[in-house]
Specification:
Layout lengths: L11 H4 L12 H20 L16 H19 L8 H13 L5 H11 L15 H12 L6 H9 L5 H11 L6 E5 L3 H5 L7 E4 L4 H4 L2 H17 L1 E6 L2 H4 L3 H5 L3 E3 L2 E5 L9 E4 L3 E8 H5 L3 H4 L3 E4 L8 H17 L4 H4 L7 H7 L8 H11 L2 H6 L3 H9 L6 H7 L4 E3 L8 E3 L7 H6 L5 E5 L5 E5 L5
Parallel strand pairs: 1-7, 1-8, 2-3, 3-7
Antiparallel strand pairs: 4-5, 5-6, 9-10, 11-12
Helix pairs in contact: 2-3, 2-4, 3-4, 3-6, 4-5, 16-19
Length: 466
């Protein structure tokens, strides 16, 4: 016989050929019963000696932990009623929140709030282009309503509304330290998350190709899946970026739907329509998916529900002193641009200012330094036409606005006198700052060297495809 499972209703011709069973959305009672069953499973693990911290006793109906789980179930039901179409959070988030609460025997306010942040975060209030309802805020309001009997309502409100920026990194670190944690989905801007995350040296980072031939062909997908399968077997951290054509093949791995064979975890990987090999998954294997913050808000719910979701930007790792400088610089820029910073700096976003300070040494954590960096990024028209003489002077005082050499030096290119002649010509080295000797030592046959008609010696780096 054949059993088919689908998230969507099929056409009548297919559905009439088999017994059709439709599972409706769970009721409030269903969610409460599910939470209790999850707790009971941990109680069974405790009785078998597999858990040591759990002290829950379901025989005691007044157990604080049981009441917390019941309040969580009621809150999630209310949330699902408030946002019925394409909710950001799904049943997997609810199930894993219950498991985390039981696993850590959560009875204190701090542990409970940390569990909620791990499983119900990652929103910006722009789900499907609408800012009417922020899923995270709606869920927090439901939590405060139904769990206030176990914790002070004022304390709950304070913990959720006054969370410092660094709680995002705390949640990410907790996920990485939790051997039972789900895989991680991080929304970010540019490569901010890659710069912030302290990945192990053996971490494998795979960035998706943007070439049409790769996106529309199977060879690229199969080659990428081969790398992923090898990483799954060897263990370590796997970082996936812009790999939309591949995610569908990793359904079981992302769901952590493993089959135990001789004490080892295995899952199926879809290699095309006809092949679904069973692949070994190392016990230390973890997957991190990086995605643009705004794209994540509009992604399909079934994919989002597989992960713990966080939004990680440079502002989440700023110190108190850095935040003070950022506040001054942001206020100055808004006054200068009449609350329209994009007119002054086209690439401006909420990640720009913290990014300018992130890699800087402590002596550069000043308003004057950040102000000059902002002036350097301004459009020529704005710097000339703005009614601020210090901005104009600061803009034209930097050499990279007056010559090509200045621009390349600003981009960390280095220049040396050309050995081919005694004139003032210069030879441009590669942007990685290697000297000629170092370049020769690392020559792998992928560089070409030659002399042009003016006697300039240049080196062209030919990119290689791995």
């Amino acid at each position: 016989g054949v059993v088919g499972i689908s998230n969507w209703a099929l056409d009548a011709a297919k559905m009439n050929r088999a017994l059709h069973i439709s599972r409706p959305d769970p009721t409030k009672k269903d969610l409460i019963d599910t939470a209790k069953i999850i707790a009971a499973s941990f109680e069974n693990e405790l009785s078998l000696g597999r858990l040591t911290r759990l002290t829950l006793s379901l025989k005691n109906p007044t157990s604080k932990l049981e009441k917390i789980l019941e309040g969580l179930a009621k809150a999630f039901f209310q949330y699902s009623q408030a946002i019925p179409n394409e909710p950001f959070f799904g049943l997997r988030d609810f199930y894993n929140a219950c498991k985390l609460v039981c696993r850590k025997n959560t009875t204190t306010l701090g542990e409970f709030v940390a569990a909620m942040r791990r499983n119900f975060s990652g929103t910006t209030g722009k789900r499907n282009g609408s800012m009417d309802k922020d899923d995270q805020m709606v869920f927090i309001q439901c939590i405060m309503q139904h769990v206030s009997g176990q914790f002070s309502a004022d304390d709950l409100e304070y913990e959720f509304s006054n969370a410092p920026d660094n709680v995002v990194m705390e949640s990410i670190q907790e996920n990485r330290d939790d051997i039972h944690g789900r895989h991680l989905l991080i929304g970010t801007l540019g490569d901010a998350a890659l710069n912030i995350l302290k990945l192990e040296q053996d971490a494998l980072i795979i960035r998706g190709s943007q070439f049409d031939a790769d996106l529309n062909g199977n060879d690229y997908v199969f080659a990428t899946l081969s790398k992923i399968i090898l990483c799954m077997e060897q263990g370590g951290v796997l970082v996936l970026i812009d790999l939309d054509p591949v995610y569908g093949s990793l359904y079981d791995m992302l769901n952590q739907s493993y089959t135990m064979i001789r004490g080892k975890r295995n899952c199926t990987i879809a290699l095309g329509a006809m092949s679904n090999p069973l692949c070994v998954v190392h016990e230390n294997f973890r997957c991190v998916v990086l995605m643009d913050r705004d794209v994540m808000q509009t992604y399909v719910s079934p994919f989002l529900n597989r992960f713990e979701k966080q939004i990680l930007l440079f502002k989440n790792v700023m110190s108190v002193e850095q935040n003070r400088v950022l506040g001054e610089a942001e206020k100055w820029l808004k006054v200068l641009s009449n609350n329209k910073p994009h007119l002054a700096i086209p690439c401006f976003n909420d990640n720009l200012l913290p990014g300018l300070l992130y890699h800087q040494p402590r002596h550069n954590w000043t308003f004057q330094y950040l102000q000059q960096r902002l002036i350097d990024l301004m459009r020529l028209e704005f710097a000339v036409l703005c009614n601020n003489e210090s901005v104009r002077n600061g803009y034209f005082s930097t050499k990279h606005h007056t010559s090509l050499e200045g621009v390349l030096k600003c981009l960390k290119w280095k220049f040396t006198s050309s050995p081919a002649n005694d004139e003032s010509n210069i030879a441009v080295q590669d942007a990685y700052g290697l000297s000629s000797d170092e370049d020769d030592e690392e020559d792998d046959g992928n560089e070409e060297e030659g002399e042009d008609e003016n006697g300039l010696i240049g080196r062209r780096i030919i990119p290689t495809l791995s």
